[in-house]
Amino acid sequence: MTAETPLTAGIQANGDVLSLNRYEDMGGYQAFRTALREMTPSEVIETVKASGLRGRGGAGFPTGMKWSFVPKRNGDTGRRYLVANGDEMEPGTFKDRLLIEGNPHQLIEGVLLAAYAMEADFGYVFIRWAYRDSFLRLRHAAAEARAAGYIGEDIFGSGFNLEFHVHVSAGRYMCGEETALLTSLQGGRANPRSKPPFPPVAGLYGKPTIIQNIETLCNVPHIVRNGAEWYRNLGLTEESGTKLYGVSGKVNRPGIYELPMGTPIREIIEQHAGGMKDGLRLRGFLPGGASTPFLLDEHLDLPMDFNHIANAGSRLGTGTMIILDDSTCPVGMLANMEHFYAQESCGWCTPCREGLPWVEKTLTAIEKGEGQEDDLGILEDHCKLLGPGYTFCALAPGAADPLASALRFFREDFEAHITGRGCPWGSGGRY
Amino acid sequence: MITITVDGREHEIREGQNLLQAVLNLGYDLPYFCWHPALGSVGACRQCAVKQFRDADDTEGMIIMACMTPVSDGLLISIDDPEAVEFRTAVIGWLMTNHPHDCPVCDEGGECHLQDMTVMTGHNQRSHRFNKRTFLNQDLGPFLNHEMNRCIHCYRCVRFYRDYAGGTDFNVFGSRNRTYFGRVKDGTLESPFSGNLAEICPTGVFTDKTEKAHYTRKWDLQTAPSLCTLCGLGCNTLPGERLGTLRRIRNRYHGEINRYFLCDRGRFGYGFVNSPRRIRHPVLRQTTTSQKVIVSAERAIDHVAGLLAEGATIGIGSPTASLEANHALRSLVGAENFLVGIDAGEAEMLRIVVATLGAGPARPPSLRDIERADAVLILGEDPTNTAPMLDLAVRQSVLNVPLERARKLGVPHWNDAVNRLVVNNERGPLFVATPAPTALDKLASGVCRAAPEDIAHLGFAIAKIIDPGSPTPGDLPHRIALLAGPVAEALRKSTTPVIITGTGSGTVATLQAAATLVRALGAVNPGAALCLVVPDCNTVGVGLFGAHDLSHAAPAAARGEIANAIVLEPDLSRRGRNHALTAVLDNVSHVVVLDHLDGPATDRAELVLPAATYAESGGTMVNNEGRAQRFFQVFVPEGEVRASWRWLQQIGERLLGPEAMPWGGSDDVAKDLARELPVFGPIADLMPVPTHRPRRRVPRQSHRVTGRTSVNAYLQIREPRPPDDGESPLAYSMEGSPLEPPAGLITRYWSPGWNSVQALNRFQEEIGGTLRGGDPGIRLIEPRPPDEVSPNRDEPARFTPRSDEWLLVPLNHLYGSERLSLETPGVAEQAPAPYVALNPDDGDRLGAGPGDSVVVEIEDRTLELPLKIEPGLPLGCAGLPEGLSGLSDLPAGRWARLRRMP
Question: Quick check: ipTM above 0.90?
């Protein structure tokens, strides 16, 4: 029996977008029609809660529970917002793009259902500028959906209204952080802001707002259509549903694979991604994007889900792994990553703004053979002092985590750079 | 009250604060950058990290940012925890990766918050071995230097400039460690509050450019508590002097007035004190040759005494001079011969102002009260240009209504970023009814452009809606009448509505309307208050003398019955004053002028006496709310410059004998005034007792002042005795006790470890509250119960445009309408060139466009001015800038004929 792939079933191999008609032929928008006709908003929330769906953006927060934090309307006519976070900028992550480009109506239906559940009257999809095809296809799909009566006022006579906008952002890693995304969406600098109040209570323009990752929202139509139990049974472990796993690095078939939640890592890499390229050995991998700590080959038999990865000392993150092979210098890899994080710091808080460039410069110096004795101490200090609670948001901790694990797992490589005054792989700073 | 434990010590504190403010209140040293008591917390700099423990058994704890943590009962924290100390030191280390080590050549050095915090954290070893990042600086105009390399990215500047002060031409650009604070391109900062960046910036990115021209370290400045004299609000200042030159003005905190900020006119407009046009010696014009010669003080005094002995003398007081100077003049010439140097129209406005100040139910609001108002109506006044700090207070008031939503969401009042997010673009009720556009229009819920008389009618119309017993207003144009309903509704619904009006529009009608309105409103809304803007620093003070204005003396002068006039600080810059004064002085044989600067006024004088400025004398002034405040001499001036009251006293002694005016110091003059005119009774309580006991004195110099044994060594090797201050407990030296002076005698903000202005925290009862022992100053006018106040039932004439004449409405300018500030290099350049402004349709009527020459004709005088097209101006009104040189020669008529120059 082939495993179910609800999220990608409508995505065509030739890369064409799935039209509204074909989406409807596959049962698309049935869940939304059913919800409007037969379910109260609370019932939708209860179904999503019961499904065990957890946010696919990286933090893994239970989706239904988040929706239940939005105060009930009880006659309140103020605006409420549902925001889909399509600022996919985690290095190594390209799953949301596949979902938007391949089947935009699935996302729109997810937005509609989530908005219905939280009684929102505005839906935004926040997309980064580089995802031009995603934007064009989504905009076209939104026009189709509006013409077909899925978007607008008093949808299908239900009394439910939804304004729907696709917002193209200037694209900053920072916009993946939900409060920075909201501030950016309302015209401010993409700086994070303090919580509480959390967005479900005071988000966009200070109004109740739910922000969900694209993949998360794409799951919702299937949950509503097929039921919570069906969804729970899709997972191989305690965790529910399918997951878009990604593999990048020197494997034979890098890409995105929809597999049951909890599929063993080894199966993902060796079976689906075709294993390492000839002659290369896996030294370690970042399981969920560049901000997750390294795991090693000893972890390959772990089920790839939130809890197992967390217990192993890393994070499932976006579920898109980056492989480090033995022909690649880990110091160079880290220098590259920290360059990215230093670039993407929003400049708001001191440790991140000033600490990450220091880390980047130190790593670059080590890679170029200009490392000094106490450089590793400086890096280790930063790993601690850029930790959660010290910095304003999770960006710097996300930059420090993989570095801390690299210093632990590949310490001899760092030391060899310093003592040997150069990169053993000969990359010499050209990482 | 709740209890928190800090490093094992329990403290009872007030709820609702953030932890940083709480521990600073308790006297702990906890470093910070981005937090500011007026701006609140944003948690950006991470400098105020402390360790929080769940309970006594928790040994690990977690790092929290004190500024972002609401205090709660039982909160258990450690400032000294090693991890917290390590992190705070690391924050400075990070900031120092890019901050240049240029303290010796940095103007902030010695009063730099970053220096203080660096020392406080103990960071002293640089381990960052890479290059520092650098920026290009901008030319931000004549007032501020920009040195971006020093920036530590605390975001205070942009939060103040944009969020707090409403500026738009300054912003934060870029991201990561290349975040840049400045303008899109070089250019003079537009906000009238830009100078505050010099105090808001915790290091030397923004420094005072006017000070750079004669730079002195903070520790070398001689400072004394003073008052700004450049508008009627009475902001408290700390001028700093060295070697006879006034070097700069800094903010002096007053919890009810200016608090943490000053306007740029007040901060930078001190140049006249150092002006090369200063009069430093008595100058006598020879009757035979008309030549001006410097004479000795003795000879000058003899000369005036001689004049007084021979002929009838009037004394013309001044709204820019202290109560003491005015009282000395009044004592010298006799109450019946004492006038105030203003014209009849202004005097009538002043009479209403003084009467209205005492008309309850509520007291006239302080600036702090206005910040807290939940509805504001501006009638006819342009606060941004006539009383700039009032503009800043109004900008805070409009946030109060939308902030209620943040309160309901549980957001603490100090959580700035979240409050502003929730408020977003929403603003509370603010209505602006003025003849010309104002800077506050953008914030307003309703704006109305009309002639001053129509604005008055709007006021009456609003009063009528609130209280049907109010006078019935005449018919208003529909577009103006439309506003009355919403304004009445907003004022009635609010809890602390404030109506702002003043003398700026040049008519009594708006003042009467506002008085009527606040009376009607007060009956239904006891929180209602009326703020009255006055033109000068002591306008209300001279108003309380109850003296006549210049028009009273004109007939007698014309009949040749007045031989002598002694004039205090004559003001020829305003048309009304100019013509009223000229009418008197033209018919007086002997004119004696006491003034600071050589100019048109002194040219009219037979004898000029060099009068001390506020920085060179002490005294008392009464601000627009009727608050008497004391200012103290900052330095002893060169030459024969003396306080005006001292000149007048010496003349009096010469004339009448030593017992005539037996005053040792300005405090004796004030006490004499308090005895003589009961309304001034309370000022006797403002006088600190002078002391000669060195240890009880408050030093004007810091304990680190340099060069005292050497600056004069080229003249005399022996260290000169410091001048003796016989009239206050302040000393012209470094000796004495600087740490805890009474609130009114604070000469500098300094506390061990706190060399920057942030030391102010140590001088307040509670940070952001009153100064220890209460804010200085005393209200002279307390409101009477409403039933004692007689309502004004005068109805002003309706405004009707005329076919051949235009009503001249005064337009005020931050730079240009106040004469003394124009002496500062940089201020004059920002003053507009003289112009006359018309609505475009009126321009078409004249057949004139922008820049065309238009002749303004009043009586038989004409003046040719370039036309400025101002779409906001009502038809039939012509805007004429107030105070610009060249315009004051026009007669004071309110209607003028205009025609285009062919």
Answer: yes
